[in-house]
Amino acid sequence: MVERNHFSRDGLSLQRCYLAAEAYHMPNFLKLPTWADKTQIFAVVETPRGSRCKLEYDPKHRAFTLAKPLLAGLTYPYDWGFIPSTKAEDGDPLDVLIIHDAGTYPGLVLRCKPIGVLEIVQNSKGNKERNDRIFAVPDRSPFEGDLQDVRRLPARAVDELEKFFETTNALEDKKLEFLGWRGPRQAIKTIERLSK
Hints:
Helices cover 21% and strands 33% of the residues. The chain has four helices and nine strands. Mean pLDDT is 88; it is low at 1-23.
């Protein structure tokens, strides 16, 4: 009896294609280093600017998955992601909003300068926990030179960002209490405190 191989159009056996796909693994983004150098962090993009849904990294499958759709008409104002090798009170990596205007995609790792933190207490089902958001600008971004401190954002931008965070959490029945906007020094302290 002759064993038959099944071939794809380009002549590779399907089995070899499957083995090649198995050999490639997306990196475990959670285990990347926190710090790129003494002043810059690594930030992993989960949800790109303009997205109408929240994506999240699933370390078990090493893939980006749909976390939730946003309300109609709502989009992410900037790239949303996390700082690797950190762990916030909610058990997830520390959240980061990356302020820039370039087009990106899930899984892109950016070198960023922390420019501040929005300190937040999140109330969900009777539980209160801190869930701060770090703000950063990418290396070599036009914003890097101009925006040194998140507290220098225009008042309207600050209001819009707070409304965005409130709205995206409302669908999950989470209430946010904003404790305040802090500058780059506090952002760095927060990152250092929550680094693994």
